[in-house]
Every structure is written in structure tokens, then in C-alpha cells.
Design brief:
Layout (H helix, E strand, L loop, with lengths): L1 E6 L3 E7 L5 E8 L4 H18 L9 E6 L2 E3 L4 E4 L7 E3 L1 H9 L3 E5 H12 L8 E6 L3 E7 L2 E3 L30 H4 L1 H12 L6 H4 L7 H9 L3 H25 L3 E5 L6 H15 L9 E4 L6 H14 L2
Parallel strand pairs: 1-4, 4-8, 9-12, 12-13
Antiparallel strand pairs: 1-2, 2-3, 5-6, 6-7, 9-10, 10-11
Length: about 325
């Protein structure tokens, strides 16, 4: 058995799988704030999942972890992570390996999602494609000539930190105007809050008793709320700007969207595709297929498990 862990800014998701990608167990926990709490949450989640199946954690052959940010995959170190400030040159894989006694491997979370989709999803159909994961931030990954592209150190495709407005919003990474400040779930919430200050919306009633979330905005957009729809239009526009640049660089056969915000594709993609059609170059933008990840909840964790499977070579 093999474990895969996907650490997002909001949730930690995990799967236990066999070598063929059959999911034997799955689970998730809220992502804590501190590094030590995250370590504990990972171990506890794995133990809980395995105990339900009658196994101990030592029954695992490997653990693969997908984590946001720049990583050193060979050393299992997170160099920096814009969304989890506690990680600075942090040896996550060695720590989890020591706590569990199971060989542990680290991969960028978006690259893990690409590997998962390449393994068991739409990615099997194409030789050249890119993925964007739209969540708390924006991650990315690429398959070029049927090989996952990871770059020099394993930290390629940090597309969320492409600058799309050089005088734009401050980003936690230290830069300004990053793509994810305009086209992520976090951006959707921020844009909506701005609109709610000046306009009437069904969301006003909901935020009397709860904090505004992307899911809440999505639900109201489906009910036809004008402000929720306008917020999605704005995010879709910026998504299109980022996609147009990526189309010009990669000339992909397909763009696959994952992450929690991809569930709102009916509101985002029509506008994003229109922007790509207007801004990307002829010959590069033609015949690009736009797809949604097959199993958003589990594919990134499955990809992380696949990293562990391939690394131990059992």
C-alpha cells in the first residue's frame, strides 16, 4: 500500500492506494497553521485511515506528499511556500519519514496533481498539455512530449506568481500583481467583498452568520445573484489573461483545470476562453481543449502517491 498526501491552504487530503491507482481509503483534515501541527495532522490522518482498514502505518511502502511552493525534491525540503508561512527551508519529508518510519517523498502540489491526472485522468489522452489548480492560490504543471516537466530543482510552473500587473496587488510571495491575486478562490472572495460594499446581494444575508467563502459565492451565482456572477466574470477575465500567456508559451493540446474553484467552470471558462481567443496568437490558440480534472478531491493526492510508488520502485 502507498499513501498520498495533498497539503492545501485549506485542507490536507489523503489517499491510500495500490500500485494501479485503486483508492483503498481516503480522508481529509483542515490544514493547521503551524509546521508542527501540520506534521501531526498528517500522521494522525494516515493512522486513522489505516486503522479503519485494520492496518498500522508501517504497512505502507511509501508516503508521497504534494505541498505548495518551491521545493527541493531530492532533499524533501520546502524552500518557501507563499500560502503556509511556517515553511522556510523546511525538511518536511525527512520529518514525516522519521515520525512514521515509512520512506517519504516530496513534490510540488501542482506537479503532483499533473502526475495524478496523467496517471488516471484526462492527461492520458495528450502528449502536450498544461494544468492549472485554482484554489487558495494558483498552481500549475506541464506535460511536454509525454513527460512531466519539473524544471531544474523540481519547482517549475509556479504560474500563480506570473506578474500580470506590475503595479498590482501585493502578494504574500513578496511580489506585486501575481496571477493568483486575481484568479484564485482567495481573489474571488476579495473581489466579491469589494462589490458587496456598494451593491445589494443575497450574500449580505449569508455573511451575517458566516465568513464569506468561494463556495458561498458559487452557490449564490448558481441562484442567479448579480454580484456573485459579476465577481466570477472578473475572475474569469483574469484567468483568461493568464491562460493566454500560457497558450503562447506552450501551444498545448489541452488545458486541464483543477482545484476547488474549477467546480465553478461554468462561470469561469466561457469568459476565460473568450479572452484567450482575443489575446493568444493565431496558430497557438487553435484547437486547444479545455477540460476539468476528473476527480478534483483525490487526484492531487493520488499523484503524490504515484511519486512515492515510482521513487521506491517496489
Amino acid at each position: 500500500m502507498f499513501a498520498g498526501i495533498d497539503i492545501g491552504g485549506t485542507n490536507i487530503k489523503a489517499v491510500i492506494t495500490n500500485r494501479e491507482g485503486l483508492i483503498l481509503a481516503s480522508g481529509k483534515e483542515r490544514t493547521p497553521k503551524t509546521a508542527e501541527e501540520i506534521n501531526t495532522a498528517i500522521v494522525n490522518l494516515l493512522q486513522k485511515m489505516l486503522e479503519k482498514k485494520g492496518f498500522r502505518i508501517t504497512a505502507l511502502n511509501s508516503i508521497g506528499i504534494g505541498a505548495a511552493g518551491a521545493i527541493d525534491g531530492k532533499k524533501g525540503i520546502i524552500i518557501t511556500s507563499p500560502n503556509i508561512q511556517a515553511w522556510k527551508n523546511y525538511p518536511l519529508a525527512p520529518i514525516i519519514e522519521k515520525k512514521t518510519g515509512v520512506r517519504t517523498f516530496l513534490e510540488n502540489d501542482a506537479t503532483a496533481a499533473v502526475i495524478g491526472e496523467w496517471w488516471i485522468g484526462h492527461g492520458k489522452k495528450f502528449k502536450n498539455w498544461i494544468m492549472l489548480t485554482l484554489g487558495t492560490g494558483i498552481g500549475g504543471g506541464a506535460v511536454i512530449d509525454n513527460k512531466v516537466y519539473t524544471g531544474q530543482s523540481g519547482s517549475s510552473m509556479e504560474v500563480g506568481h506570473l506578474t500580470i500587473d506590475y503595479k498590482g496587488k501585493q502578494c504574500p510571495c513578496g511580489n506585486r500583481g501575481c496571477f493568483e491575486r486575481y484568479a484564485s478562490a482567495t481573489a474571488l472572495v476579495e473581489i466579491t467583498k469589494g462589490k458587496l460594499k456598494k451593491n445589494k446581494s443575497s450574500l449580505h444575508e449569508r455573511i451575517k452568520t458566516a465568513d464569506l467563502t468561494a463556495r458561498m459565492i458559487f452557490e449564490e451565482a448558481k441562484r442567479g445573484d448579480k454580484i456573485a456572477r459579476e465577481a466570477f466574470d472578473e475572475v474569469g477575465f483574469y484567468l483568461g489573461i493568464g491562460l493566454a500567456g500560457l497558450v503562447n508559451i506552450f501551444n498545448p493540446e489541452a488545458i486541464i483545470l483543477g482545484g476547488g474553484l474549477s467546480r465553478a467552470h461554468q462561470f469561469l471558462l466561457p469568459i476565460a476562453k473568450k479572452v484567450v481567443a482575443e489575446r493568444a496568437l493565431p496558430g497557438l490558440k487553435d484547437n486547444v481543449k479545455y477540460l476539468i480534472i476528473k476527480n478534483e478531491d483525490k487526484t492531487p493526492a493520488l499523484g503524490a502517491a504515484k511519486v512515492g510508488i515510482d521513487s521506491v520502485g517496489i
